[in-house]
Structure formats: C-alpha cells, structure tokens
Amino acid sequence: MPKVQVPETDDNMRAFAEKVFASETKDEQVRDEISLFDVAEDCPILHQEMAHHLHADDNAEKRKRLQRSRTMAAPQAAAAPVVVDTPTYLEVPDFQRVAIVGDYAAGVTMDDFESSCKGLYRALTIREKYMRLAYQHFSRTASQFLRQIEGNTFKVEDEVQPVFNAPPKDGEDPLGTSDLPENLGYVARMKDGLMYVYNDAAAADKHQPKDLPHPDYSTFIDDMNFLIALIAQGPTKTYTHRRLKFLMSKFNVHEMLNEMEEMKELKMNPHRDFYNCRKVDTHIHAAACMNQKHLLRFIKRSYRVDADRVVHNLKGREVTMRELFESLNLHPYDLTVDSLDVHAGRQTFQRFDKFNAKYNPVGASELRDLYLKTENHISGEYFATIIKEVASDLEEAKYQYAEPRLSIYGCNPNEWGKLSSWFVKHRVFSPNLKWMIQVPRIYDIFRGRNFVPHFGKMLENIFLPVFQTTIDPQSNPELSIFLKHVTGFDSVDDESKHSGHMFSTKSPKPEEWDIVKNPSYTYYIYYMYANIAVLNQLRRSVSLLSSTIHLTLEVKLMLAVSLGMFFCLHASFLLFRQRGLNTFTFRPHCGEAGAITHLLAAFMTADNISHGLNLKKSPVLQYLYFLTQIPIAMSPLSNNSLFLEYAKNPLLEFHQKGLMVSLSTDDPMQFHYTKEPLMEEYAIAAQVFKLSTCDMCEIARNSVLQSGLSHEEKIHFLGSDYQKEGPEGNDIRKTNVAQIRMAYRFETLCYELNLIKEGLKVE
Amino acid sequence: MPKVQVPETDDNMRAFAEKVFASETKDEQVRDEISLFDVAEDCPILHQEMAHHLHADDNAEKRKRLQRSRTMAAPQAAAAPVVVDTPTYLEVPDFQRVAIVGDYAAGVTMDDFESSCKGLYRALTIREKYMRLAYQHFSRTASQFLRQIEGNTFKVEDEVQPVFNAPPKDGEDPLGTSDLPENLGYVARMKDGLMYVYNDAAAADKHQPKDLPHPDYSTFIDDMNFLIALIAQGPTKTYTHRRLKFLMSKFNVHEMLNEMEEMKELKMNPHRDFYNCRKVDTHIHAAACMNQKHLLRFIKRSYRVDADRVVHNLKGREVTMRELFESLNLHPYDLTVDSLDVHAGRQTFQRFDKFNAKYNPVGASELRDLYLKTENHISGEYFATIIKEVASDLEEAKYQYAEPRLSIYGCNPNEWGKLSSWFVKHRVFSPNLKWMIQVPRIYDIFRGRNFVPHFGKMLENIFLPVFQTTIDPQSNPELSIFLKHVTGFDSVDDESKHSGHMFSTKSPKPEEWDIVKNPSYTYYIYYMYANIAVLNQLRRSVSLLSSTIHLTLEVKLMLAVSLGMFFCLHASFLLFRQRGLNTFTFRPHCGEAGAITHLLAAFMTADNISHGLNLKKSPVLQYLYFLTQIPIAMSPLSNNSLFLEYAKNPLLEFHQKGLMVSLSTDDPMQFHYTKEPLMEEYAIAAQVFKLSTCDMCEIARNSVLQSGLSHEEKIHFLGSDYQKEGPEGNDIRKTNVAQIRMAYRFETLCYELNLIKEGLKVE
Fold first, then answer.
1. Could you identify which of A228, B35, B72, B300 might form a hypothetical disulfide with A17, taking C-beta atoms 3.0 to 4.6 angstroms apart as the criterion?
2. Range among A37-46, A168-177, B258-267, B653-662 rated most confident
3. Signal peptide span per the entry (chains A, B) (predicted)?
4. Per-residue pLDDT for B546 more than 50?
C-alpha cells in the first residue's frame, strides 16, 4: 500500500509563517504582467475563418491541412488505460491542440522552478493526507502523479471517497426506522475540543480511546505554517502566476480553434441539451430557498386559512395570527414585495450586517420566527410547507436538485433532536433535495449572552449528539433518519469580520476559550474538520481495532489512511452491514471575503467550498485549487449584491483556467427575481460572460460532481464511469459536455502536474 | 388656435447639411470632459448617513435640518393647475431637491447659449409638426413650453393623440364583422410613392385628390437638412453635451438623497409591487416570440400527433411531416436545443447575417416555413398555435403584455389578405397581445429577383390594400378586422448595412427607383411615414372638405394640423360613428447600428423607436430625445448578442438622464433562457445595473405609455390621469412609481425646457 509522506516539522518555517501572517497576506498585490502567451480576450483571429472551414461539410482534406500544429504528445497519464473498444460516445473527435515546443521552465530560473515544484508537491501531499483521513475526495489524477513522483503505482482500490445514501427504492419509506443498526455500546466524550470514542465509561474516565485516528494538532499547524510560507514565497508566486496566465491564454486559444467542433459534438448528441442536463444548486440556505414572491404568497395564503390559529408566543401571551399581525400594525392583504423587504438592494453592498437583517420579513423577527424557522409555536409547520413547495417545483422541473442548509448553532445539545423531529414530523423529504448542516461562526454572540461557558461546549453541542446517535441509532430514531439524509457540514457567517487571533500551537484549547471574542476562521475550521473526520471514521466502520496500544502519531496517521482505504473499498463489503453509515463532507463558505488564510485552511480540510472569490488574490492557492480540482460553488448574483460587482466576478476567469466551478443561488429570497432561481443564475452568467452551451453543461456537470448526490445518482446522471477523470469519465449522452472539452481539460491538468513531476526529477 | 411655425427654407443650411452628411457625422467623437457637476457613479457620500437618518422613524426635526438646500423654486409649468384637494395618493412627499443658484448659461458663452436655444426650439417645432400631422404623440410638457415661447396658451383640447381600439367588451367577438363601416366609394392610388384618395376614378385620372394633407416633400428635406446642420453645430453640441452630463450628475445626487424616501413610498403602497405592475414587451418579433425550448417541445409534439399529415410541398411534391424530416436526415425525437440551433451565440456578435440564419431551425428553411410562417401548406396553423400558447402564458401571468411584429414585405398586394385570413382563421387574438406590422427594408433583394419593378410598387403593395379596406371595410372583412388589432408599423433590417444614398431633393421618386440598390434608411422612413400620416387622416375622419380648392402648402399644413386637433377631440364625437377607425403609429427599429441620420429621421417621423443605442454618439439628438420624451424600447440582451456588450449598454445612462426607456425582448427564441423572457430581461437589467424597485416600476410604466394599448387600458393600468405629465399623471396605487421620482423627472424636464425659453427671451 502506498505511503503518504508526512512532511517534517520545520521551526524556521513556522517562524516565517508567523511573520507572513503578521504582515497580512490578504492584501498582497498581484501584478498583471504581460506574459508570452497573452491572447486578447476578444481576439477575432481565426474565428471567422475557422467557422467557415469547420462549419461547412466535413471536408477532411481541409481539416487535415488545419491540423499542422498538432505535434504535442499529451503527457501520459500513467493510469489512463488503453481502451481497445471505445464506445462511440466516448470517442474524442480530432481537435486542434496547443503545443508548447521547447523547455518548460515557464520564465522562471531553474532553481526557482525546482523549489516551486517541491513546495507544490508537498502542498498536494498535505491535502491528500487530510482528505483521506476524513473520507473526502481527492483528485484521482493528482493522486496518480503523486504516486509516480514517489515511484509507486496508483491503484484505484486505494482511493477514499465520501459515502452518501442511495435514494430510497420504490416503495421504501425514506423515513423508515426499521433497519437502524444495533447499539455498539460505546461512550463518546469531548476532550480538548475533539470527540473521542471509548469502549465504555471506565475507559472514558481513564481516557483510553478507541483507535479512530484524529488529525494531529501540531502536525496540522506545521502543515498550515508550511502552506502560509509557500503562498508568500516569491518564486512560487511568480511561477504559479505565470502558469495561471498560461492556462487562461491556452483556453482562449483552445476555444478559438475548437469552439465549432465542440458545438458540433453537442449538436450530434441526441435527446440531451442544457435544459435536461442535471444541475445541482450546490449552495442554498433553506431559510431563503423560496423567492420573495413565493414567500409573499405563502404569507397571504396562510392568513386566509389560519388567521384565528394560535401561532405565536408574544411576550408570554399566546396570540393568533390575526393578533400577531395587528401587533405589527400590518395586514397581510396589504403586503407587497416592497413592504416585505427581504430583497437585497444597493443598500446591502459591502454591508453584510444589513444583509442579515433582510431575513426578517417586514423587518419583524416575529415573522421570521413564524415562517422561516423550524422551532416555533407551530413546530415549524409553515417553514416545512414552504420548503416542500420549493421541492415540488424542483421535482416538476425534474433536472434540478438543491442542497439546502439547515442551522445547528451549538447553543444547546437538544438542537439536533428538535431539528430532526421537525424533519420527520413534517416529512420534509424530497428526492431532489440533499441536506446540509450549517454552523454559524457566532460563538462570540452566544458567549456574550452566556448561552455557553466556552467554545468547547459549543463544539460538544454540535458533535456529541451525532456521535451518540451513530453509536446507538435506535436511541434516537428521528435523528438517525435525519442524518441519513444529511450529506455534509457548512461553516457560515460574515468572513469580512476579522478576529485578530492567529491559530497556532499557542492557541488556547476550546475548553479554555471562555472569552467573549470569537476564535479565528481557521480555529473554527480545524475543530469542525477534526471532529467530522473522527465522526466519519466512526460511521463507516468500528471495532476492528479496539486496541489500547499506544501508537506514535506517525504510525497512527498511516494506519488511518490505510484503514480508510481498506474499509472504504474492501471492508465496505465485509463490514457494511455492521455499521456502514453515510459520511459527511466538510463544505464551508470560504473566500467570500476576509483573509487569504481562510482559503488555505479550506485547502487542507474541505472537500469543497462555496464562493472562493479571494482566490483572485493568491496565485499559489488558486493554482493549488486548480491542481487538486477542488470544487467551488460560486454565486455571482449573491456576490453582486454583497461583495463584488457582477462583471468583476472571477467565475469566468476560474472556469477558463480550468478550476472546477459550479453555479449556485445562495439565497433566492434575497437575490433572484424569477420563478426559477437556478436557471436565472445560469442565464445571467451565460449572458454576461457569453458562455457557450458546452461551458454551461460543463458547469452543470461540475455541480453534480461537487454535490452530495449518491454514487447511484451520479452514475445515473453522469454515466457509470463518472469517477474516472478525463474523457473516459464523461458520458456525453448524459452530460452534454463535448469530449473535446474533456480531453482539453484532462490533458491540460496532466500537463501541469507533469511539470511538477519534471521539476522534482531534476533534483 | 395656436399656429405651428413652419421654419423657412434655407439654401445655405441645405448646402451645409450636405457637406456634413458627406463627412459622415456618424463617427463623431464626443469627448468625455470633466464637468463641474460630476459625481462618481459609486460615490458613497451620504449613503450611509442618509440611510440612518431617513430610515429611522420620521424625525421631523432631523429632516428639517437636512432640507437646507431646498431653495430652488421649480420653474412653473404654466399648465400645471393648482389642485386644491389633492387625493392622498397624488401627494408628493417632501424630498431634497438639487438647486442651481446663479446663472444658467451652463459653461457656454451667452451667444452660443442663445444660438443653441434657437436651434433646439426649431427642432422641437419640427417634431411637433410631424407628430400632429400623423396623429402621433408629442410631449405635452414640451408643447406647453413651445406655446409659452410663442406667447400663446396651451390647451389640452388642441392635443393630437394616436387612437387605438378598446379591448372587446364582455361577450363581444373581437373578430366580429357586424359593425364594419359603409363604403365611402373613394378611389385610392399611389403617385410618386404617396397614396392619394380621390372622390372617384374620374378625379383620380385627373389627379384631383381629396384634402388629406401630406407632409410636403421639399419642406421635409429642408427640415431634415436643418437638423443635420444642428446636430453638427459646435456650440449646440457643447451645450447639449454639458446639459446631459448635468442631468446625469443631478440624477445621481437625487438618488443619493432620496433613494430611501422613494423606497418608503413604495413600501407604504399597498397591494402593488414590481410583480403586479403592468409591463409591456414593447418590441418582439412574432416569429421569435417563443423561447427555444418552447419551439423544440412544439416540434416534437407536432410530430407525435401529425407525422403522417401532408404539411409541405417539397420541390413540387406534397410530403408528410415524416417525409419532410426524413428528407432533412433527422428525427424530431432526437432533436435538442443544441441541434435546433436557433440561439444566438458568440458567433453572431457583429454578424447580423449569421443572426438572421438563426431563424431557421436546424438550419433548414423548410422548418422555418412549417413552424414560423403564416403562409405555408398548412395555412400557418402551427405558427398560430405557438403564438396562442405564448399568449396564454401571458394571460396567465396577467400583468404582462406584448406587441409582436408580423411581416408585410411589399412583394405582392395580396400579402395583407393572406395575413389577415391567417389571423381570423386561427383566431390569433389575445387581450394581452397588440399587433404591429414590420416592413423589412429589403427592396434590393426583391428587385434583384425581379419580384417588383421599382420601389414605388413595393410601397403600393404595402399601402394600397390598407387604403382600399379603409375606404370600403366590407370589401375585405378579414383585413378590416385584422387592422382593428394592428396598432402600428415597424421598419426592420440590418441598420449597419450602408446604402450610400443621401435622401435629398434630387433623389429619384419611388416609381423611378428601379435599380437593384437599396434606398437609404431615411428614404424608406420618409415614405413609410408620409403614407401612414395620410392613412391616419383617412381612418380618423373623411369628407368634411372634399374641396378641390388648391391651397398653398403652408395653409394646407396648418389646416391639417387644425383639422387633426378638431377631429380628434371634437369631431370624434360627431363623426366617430361615421368612420373613426383606429390610427397607426410609426415605431421603427432605429439606432441599433448605422449612421446617426437614422435617429434624426426617426426624430422627425416616429412616435417612438426600438433600440436607440447610437444616441450615445450625438449629444444634440440625445438631448432632443430627452426634451421630447420619445420612448425608446431597449433590448440589452439582444444588443449583447449582436452589437454591444451588456455592461456597455446605454440603458442605465439613458434612464438616469431621464430619457424615456422601456425594456423589451426582441427575440426570445434567440436570446433568452427562461420561461419568462420579459422577466428575464428585467431581472438581468436589475442585477447588472443595480436598478431599484422604483427604477424598474418607472421603466414598466414607460412601457405601457409607449405601447399600443388603448386609452381605456392605459387608464386601467396607469390611472385616469395618465396623460398628464408629472406626479399628477401618476397613480402610485397602480404604477408603484414613487411620486418623488415623478416630481424629480417633471421638474427636471421643465427646468431644461425653461432654459430654452430663457435663451430665446434674451434675444
């Protein structure tokens, strides 16, 4: 089994990292230098000529002549097997490639090139390690190159993947509790902000935990410091900046040369077009998943039916809906979208505080409670109904899915119980919805109101109930059922608020963090990630090694990784029936605003992220997100109302360079106008950025890959080989993405990874 | 009755105009100088402060203090009556005004100021004259100032307005033929490209026409030459450029100061919000009024039902739909939006020719014939069905209307008969559709194929049938009925194709124009306008003066104007029952591309226009369009695919300056993605340009005013006083436009008109 090399601790590195952090990496200037490969964005060269040649009947002679430049052999992706009988739909039509002839040092000195490659290699291994530990996804192509660099061979069997539950079969009750696993009898406790699982209470008291490998705290901080140093390192910045410029120009050339050919593939592809490709709204908050008009109609309708129903507790007195509205001096009949006032306008730009207030209809938190909360006097009935109406629209539209976020705050350990009761009671299930849990980073508020004594308690409230239910599912059937439909955790709040704290070995432990000040983003992220990692270990498989042997950290980690692999692909067949619950991915909001370190923390810990705007500010991180193909759910309409004007959104640039972006709505209630918010999001991006159909279908495909849809659904929507990267993994009949595009992306990624391999060889 | 001063002919002017034309006014440079009133577009000053003060409870004291700058008395619009008991909804809340204290010469010398005002005054009288002659709309406020300048008093009774038919009453058949007027027995003939009406054939042979005043040819050319000279005149260019910059800055200041107050008005306005304001899609082509997905579905559905129906004549052989698709080597079952290939993409940018080809589904003109034509083997049944489906969506959405264009080419005199048969046979009627006739400017193609002998014949084919049917409605009941639902004429085709011909007194008459070359845009426009003017005279009222007295042109024109007024408002009660048919407005595509003279011709002849992008290039014309409030139907998504990138569209700028803009889709089939193209158009504009709700509702109100909706419908949708300008004419309960905004617009327009009055006084 391949070893994951654990980079050594380096005190100098740490010191340097701290210096860098102190000098605020977030505002670094990226100069826009002119590179050799620049092509003007609207360059009309060849456009017309190519159109003429390629659009007319396939004149093979003519096309041959146009292919003179096709001299580059694509670097061999070692694992790309030679398919002998390629099915027609997998064939990549001939297309024109961009070949770079000569040396590849890309305008930096050989020394700088080597040191950059070394740093990038190490960064890749760091992410790979943490992804495996937590059952999260790591790019297969990147893994293949890492194994080659290490002189090993990549094996598909070694891969670790998140596991989500398949949709219920016909006749199966999605909320059925008949097949809940047995109690394992373990005990879960929190220590230093991390959950530990023990054989029994006695072992717990002695702190003799079972072997569910945690990420090691000091190694994590070393890794983080290494990455902080790397992203500030001059040569690496230059190198990655130039590579990214090259990627951009290369895509522009590719597009000029092959646009027509890509389109031809799509035209030849029967039945499938952009409208009936599956697309997932990868980032949407449940409390704002309806549009403003929908909410308005619902409020009016509820009043017509329920005016005399007791719906609220107003300062200790139970009041009917009529009384509630009277106390607010308004009548639902008069309400309009304007007076409802939930839409973000010019006033919210750069004002996240004002934006948050928009969640209150008519500015009244009472109405938010009544209509947009799961916990209230009517047990969240209205909120459930609204969500089910949204879901029914999606089911009707058939090809659209959404991943709404519900909140767990960590104020109280029974939040999970209440949330899952709401879910089960109102049967808020839809095949077109995959659920996510969002944890707002607002410890400071809770601490200020004395809801929690310290940060550790907040973490315990978030994680302990899930661990307990995982150990004994039948102890809390509703939560067990709900967790079956939850696919991940999100971390949310205003990133532009700076905490001033730097996460380091000297940071207080969560139980010691009892000041009112909020911990830093990175601190939150680490503890969320670490607990999710252990939780996933517990959910997939337990009790193989109930040893109490004390292992060194190094060995533990390696074991963890090996176990991960083993269980995921082999043990799943052996032990699945024993526990084999679904895992959770970590998908925080990241890089919407704030320091660049947020994106660095997510690089280490997150399966994928939402927003990612600030990748613009760090070429090193942007290049790393490209190399590891970390999915980014972008919401340009949300950004347009909050942080960044539409035309300046980096979506197009990221997409062109080959970062894996998807489109999402964030908050239809606040941002969208039409009945189909996700289509509105795609339409506006298509119009403003002039995306081609192939671009749009590629983005839609990315959204399915990024989502918490199950393996079975992904096979159904993308094709049986969707886990393979490159054209092999693309079933154009289902995705409507041109094979030429897939080949271009794959070859481009391999080329960049290959450069790193070459850079390390030199050494 | 007030006289309309007819400007004298001036040979020097003409010579100058010809020189200017020769030197191609279209590319003149408008320098972007810094003016005293510049305010950066994203200036945050006061935003937050004002929000704080104004949004909080109305603290009257505080607000008083903020109103120190309110010192400017709005220039008195003489006709604005003092309303004693203003209904609440008409009250304009207090708001902060921008006062300019001191002299008003606006940075130009006094001489230049006077000469500019003189020129602008004359330009306004020219437009007023031609609007009245053709029963088209002229700004009431502008008329009031013109009368003041002339020392007269404006009377509402003097106004001329277009007349459209009210929607059918309950139970009334919109296509009923029972009440068609009697035959007048007249004879209509074309001479020199103009229609004349005679008492009988004998009078026609002697060319003794009835007194339906035409625009005089040489006066028209003189007027045009004057305007050409005016828009090229240095001082006027400077003056108007500075006024426009001032208007822009003034609006920005207004917005900063009053945004919150405007929003407050809207929030206080019950029942009404942007969603249930009436909005009209003021520019849409019937052949592309469905979106691509709709067309695709329709094709598939038609095949499932009608595969064995004979639907087409293929090279003389009648074929079934199955055979037709077989001959094209495709099966509808396999069709996708991609293979349908009707959507404009990056390939169509700056390529109108390629865009036109997109009207052919799958690139096959046979399918265009079958699905998108009124004349084909199945009598346009499918096309009618598709349009009725679009109409039914609009009826369901309730608040949306559209004005689709159907083509009359002028190849053949029986085109009108066929079109109206199609209309009546398939009952293509909907209360949410108002019909327009578009005439493509493609004489050159018809002449090249020998379809017509000369341009005069094309004009005759377009107008003669309408004149004949107007004289004897019962001779062609179908056409008479169809004309009841037609509200105007459009002139369409690629404006960027330059003809090279200059319209002048030396231009050949239409009957002499027998070369293959296309006449210029202006030549087309003049003959369209002149015939529509006469047609409207005929349709409103006839036979009062069947005199054969030969009047001088001057007198004729004055008589025409007086008659117009008289008939429209008095005679309508007397003679209405006698004829009193609806009139047609002239609403050409104009300023999408091509020379600036297009916009000049439309200024003289058009009730309103579509596109108007090139107003960017001439400050004088832009200012004139502002002063006369000529409605402009803009389609930024269409422009984005064809001529101008979205972010560069002047829509926002025009709207801010106070030009009267509406939003329209142009071709949903080619440009839009969602099921609600007009909402998509509004949503994208709102997002990209950050329009406020008040902005959007103002644009929606403009669209109703611009449209061919009847007086009755406009009263219903905008309020009973909609014809009044300023806040008096606005019923916020129906339009959701803030009275503060209306007052700002009105005061601003009056201020600018007043400047001209002052400039003329000095003299």
1. A228
2. B653-662
3. none
4. no
- The boundaries of the domain holding residue A153 are 11-162+223-269+614-762
Closest by CA to B234, choosing from B623, B620, B763, B758, is B620
In this structure, how many other beta carbons lie within 10 angstroms of the beta carbon of residue B398?
11
Q: What angle do CA A419, A421, A422 make, to 5 degrees?
A: 65
Q: Which of A47, A277, A338, A638 to mutate to test the interface with B (most CBs of B within 10 A)?
A: A338
- For residues B196 and B106, membership in a common domain is answered with no
Considering only CA atoms, which of B622, B614, B611 is closest in space to residue B594? B614
Q: Could you give the percent of chain B with pLDDT greater than 90?
A: 72
B338: nearest CB among A266, A680, A688: A266
| B294 touches A: beta carbon within 8 Å | no
Do B59 and B203 share a domain, yes or no?
no
Reading the block at residue B32, the tokens are 């972007």
Do residue B485 and residue B543 come from a single domain? yes
For residue B4, what pLDDT is reported? 40
Tokens describing residue A28: 């670094």
Distance CA A530, CA B117 (A): 76
Q: CB atoms < 10 A from the CB of B77, how many?
A: 21
Instruction: Answer positive or negative: Cα dihedral of A546, A552, A555, A558.
Output: positive
**What's the complex ipTM?**
0.81
DSSP state of A661: E
For A385-428, give the DSSP string.
HHHHHHHHHHHHH-SEEEEEEEE--SS-TTHHHHHHHHHHHTT-
- Sort residue B190 into left (φ over 0), alpha (ψ -120 to 50) or beta: beta
A46 touches chain B (CB under 8 A): no
- Domain contains A32: yes
B94 CB near a chain A CB, below 8 Å? Answer: no
Q: Which of B528, B552, B587 is the last residue of a domain?
A: B587
Listed by number, the residues of chain B in 311-350 with a beta carbon closer than 8 Å to a beta carbon of chain A are 333-339, 341, 343, 345-347, 349
Nearest-CA residue of chain B relative to A644? B688
Pick B338's closest partner by Cβ from A273, A341, A682.
A273
- pLDDT exceeds cutoff 60 at B571: no
Residue A65 has pLDDT above 50, yes or no: no
Instruction: Look at residues B587, B618, B640 and tell me which one is the last residue of a structural domain.
Output: B587
Distance from CA of B690 to the nearest CA of A (A): 7
Tens digit of pLDDT for each residue in B519-544? 999 999 999 999 999 999 999 864 44
Out of A65-69, A73-77, A705-709, pick the least confident.
Answer: A65-69
In a domain, A517, yes or no: no
Residue A717 to residues A90, A733, B562, Cα–Cα distance (Å): 16, 10, 71
Are residues B144 and B42 located together in one domain of the fold? yes
A170 touches chain B (CB under 8 A): no
Whether residues B88 and B147 fall in one domain: yes
Same domain, B134 and B79: yes
The CA–CA distances, whole Å, from A498 to A438, A441, A596, A602 equal 20, 12, 12, 17
For residue A188, list its beta bridge partners. Answer: A197
Q: Give B 676-695 residues with CB within 8 A of chain A.
A: 676, 679-680, 682-684, 686-688, 690, 692-693
Q: Is residue A744 part of a domain?
A: yes
Listed by number, the residues of chain B in 538-557 with a beta carbon closer than 8 Å to a beta carbon of chain A are none
Confidence class for position A6, pLDDT limits 50, 70, 90: very low
The band of B10, judged by pLDDT with boundaries at 50, 70 and 90, is low
Q: Give how many domains chain A has, as a whole number.
A: 1
Shared-domain flag, residues B233 and B265 = yes
Residue A654 lies in a domain: yes
Interface test with A, best of B642, B651, B679, B687 (most A CBs within 10 A): B687
Contact between A194 and A511 (Cβ < 8 Å): no
